[in-house]
Amino acid sequence: MTVVRKLSGVAEAIALSSDGHTLVGGGGKSFSVWHLPSQQPQLTLKGDANDIYDLALSADGQTLVSGSLDKTIKVWNLATGKLKFTLKGHLEFTYWEIVA
User: Fold this and answer.
1) With helix as H, strand as E and coil as C, how does the chain read?
2) Torsion over CA of 13, 24, 31 and 14, rounded to 10 degrees?
3) If exposure means fewest CB atoms within 10 Å of the residue's CB, which of 2, 24, 26, 65 is most exposed?
């Protein structure tokens, strides 16, 4: 294994696309999207009110789902970096396991 880039901060959650080309890692209130073949960052997304604890990518790699301590699940468009919508409703904190 070769380390090609050292990242700062803590990754609380990671997700890898099914084709192995996209890696998403997040911690705190933001996450970064990386294109693995070029080893280049594509986006950094912010928007969760509390720490992110789970990430999942859709099978086509176009949609990202994040779960955080604010008791929400957010659905993101990775092509635009825009938030599509937020799911709310839990009254207490829940550890999410997201399968996309």
Assistant:
1) CCCCCCCCCCCCEEEECCCCCEEEEEECCEEEEEECCCCEEEEEEECCCCCEEEEEECCCCCEEEEEECCCCEEEEECCCCEEEEEECCCCCCCCCCCCC
2) 0
3) 2
pLDDT tens digit sequence for 2-38: 545 555 566 778 899 999 999 998 877 888 899 999 9
Which fold does the domain 13-87 belong to in CATH?
Answer: Thrombin, subunit H (2.40.10)
Closest by alpha carbon to 25, among 12, 42, 43, 35?
12
- What is the spatial distance between Cα 59 and Cα 48, in angstroms, rounded to a whole number? 23
Return the percentage of the chain with pLDDT > 70, whole number: 76
